[in-house]
Specification:
By secondary structure, the chain is mainly alpha-helical. It contains 3 helices and 2 strands. α1 crosses α2. The termini are far apart.
């Protein structure tokens, strides 16, 4: 039987291994810090954005609930244009 403090957690994210209970890092019960999120985001966007572009996008996404519209986010047109050009050998 699960300890009471774990009963409200999604059972799929709770693992019992030799009486040690853990959750997946980054889950709502064990969230990443903003710095950890930034490191992951920077790594994911390394090939598609300059560091300055990635930081600007990350900062906007951190306050997405304050944006007036999705149109406030930058587009990825240049990223896709570069990918198409590279694929076509231009």
């Amino acid at each position: 039987m699960l300890p009471e403090y774990l009963r409200d957690r999604p059972i799929g994210l709770v693992f019992a291994v030799l009486f040690v209970i853990a959750t997946v890092r980054g889950h709502a019960y064990d969230p990443l810090t903003v710095d950890e999120l930034w490191q992951k985001f920077a790594d994911c966007t390394r090939r598609t954005h300059t560091p300055a572009q990635a930081r600007m996008l990350f900062d906007l996404l951190q306050k997405v609930d304050e944006l007036h519209s999705p149109l406030d986010l930058p587009t990825c047109d240049a990223v896709f244009e570069d990918a198409v050009a590279a694929a076509s050998g231009r």
